[in-house]
Amino acid sequence: MSVLNDVDEPTVRSLNGCRVADQILKLVPNVEHFCTTLRCLKFWAKRRGVYSNVTGFLGGVNWALLVARVCQLYPNAVPSMLVSRFFRVYTMWRWPNPVMLCAIDEAELGFSVWDPRKNRRDKTHHMPIITPAYPCMNSSYNVSTSTLRVMMDQFQYGNTICEEVELNKAQWSALFEPYLFFESYRNYLQVDIVAANADDLLAWKGWVESRLRQLTLMIERDTYGKLQCHPYPHEYVDTSKPCAHCAFFMGLQRKPGEVVQEGQQFDIRGSVEEFKLSINMYMFWKPGMEICVSHIRRKQIPPYVFPEGYKRTRHPRLASQQRSSENGNEYQTGSGLKRKKDPESVDQDGPEKRQSISPQKQDSLSPDHLAPSSVRSGTGSNVEPVIPDKRVLNQEIAEGGDVSNSSVITSVTSEVGSCEDVGNESVAGSSEGNNGSVEGSNNLVSSQSDSCDADSQSLLENRHLDGNGAFQDGVHEELEV
After folding, report:
1. Could you name the domain of life of the organism this protein comes from (predicted)?
2. Cβ neighbours of residue 194 under 8 Å, at least 6 residues apart?
């Protein structure tokens, strides 16, 4: 600890990178078993889409600390048992009780350490994973309610597979099956990022990706937690486009257990505009750097997100789970009667079903509905309006409501006749309550821009209202710079 004398706080954080790694290796009972188990679980996390600190999941240090704690709990276990026990432990872990490898050291050097009893901000952490080196801090402060829910779902999935492996009902390869993200939701947000060239895109994409977590928090805040977001930490590209481009996607669904009202919608236009304003604060913005946020449904997912552009039937495990949930799935109609969902509203298995396995390599180009290159992110009406129910639209017009081209009204409803609403996907509940106490570590419980315009028309299609309140398609509008 003497290296921390007479240094400032940024230097302490820099030094803590190697100091934490050294402490982890000193605190695990068997370094070889720890390393093998960690490699396995980091590979699993990447396959299941939960390996990304910047988007609100867990990064390398976080996974190392979680694995090290399991190694402490089972000091004589071999890696195969440690993997199984990892999922069992963290499926039952009562968050926000912290994961700690040792007691928190409060040395007299004056640096702040993680303590929810003293620091109000520490009480808001959903999944505290505490570093062992002084000054101890929470390494997973980026985790939100939505990303914690996603990770708990994946822990439960891993625990189920490991139990089947122990009973000789499954093989270890089943644990590493890629997560079918684009078959898990019916509504998505698509965030398209464009720059004049590859170098600009690299910087622009890094800035936008670092702010995607804020979009998740804004939507959670503005919908009072009723609309759940699942940011997917993979970028996708359209190799048929000449522009320097990449896209990120977020799954959207209603929080399970919420009362469903006919025609109910989630208006997230304000959240999207606030997000774009924060993106505009980029100090190194250059002409050609653009961002487009749009609401799409599953059938509108661009084909370039699928491996090699082909389609495949849904995975048997996922298909059987959906069929079992459909058998008893009913919804409330406007007349007060209950009817089973229209079979057409459920995507049927078939050879045309697109597979959503994330490509391991990301190439980078542009989607079919990008805004013109003259658009600067967030300053124009570059979000396609999504108003699925004309009855709701006409009512808003009659009442003098404002329907603008910059709107993103996400309909996640169960109204009569709508087959595109979000289904009742099963989701584990999010962490509840922050007791603020530091529990003992033994508690079990996220081309140039101008050249792109040369040979193409505006790719962002805006819809306008005629005198009768109906949409007129095919109208293109160049957005303000």
Report:
1. Eukaryota
2. 201, 243, 244, 245, 288, 289, 290, 291, 292, 366, 370, 371, 373, 449, 452
Q: Are strands 227-231 and 330-332 parallel, antiparallel or unpaired?
A: unpaired
- DSSP string over 61-89: HHHHHHHHHHHHHSTT--HHHHHHHHHHH
Out of 23-27, 175-179, 181-185, 382-386, least confident range: 382-386
- Quickly count: other Cβ atoms within 10 Å of residue 364's Cβ: 22
Q: Residue 436 pLDDT more than 60?
A: no
Beta strands in 326-386 (DSSP E): 330-332, 338-340
Cα→Cα distances 104→114, 188, 216, Å = 8, 41, 31
Tell me if the pTM is above 0.85: no
Beta bridge partners of 138: 130
Q: What is the largest CA-CA distance in the chain?
A: 75
The CA-CA-CA angle for residues 153, 155, 158, to 5°, reads 110
Tell me, rounded to whole angstroms, the distance of Cα 239 from its chain centroid.
24
Which residue, chain included where needed, has tokens 């002084």?
134
Assign 302 a pLDDT band (cuts: 50, 70, 90): very high
Contact 385, 404 (CB under 8 A): yes
Q: How far apart are CA 355 and CA 368, in angstroms?
A: 20
CB 339 within 8 Å of CB 330: yes
Are the C-beta atoms of 448 and 196 separated by less than 8 Å?
yes
Q: Is 409 left (phi over 0), alpha (psi -120 to 50) or beta?
A: beta
Cα(98)–Cα(117) distance, rounded to whole angstroms? 13
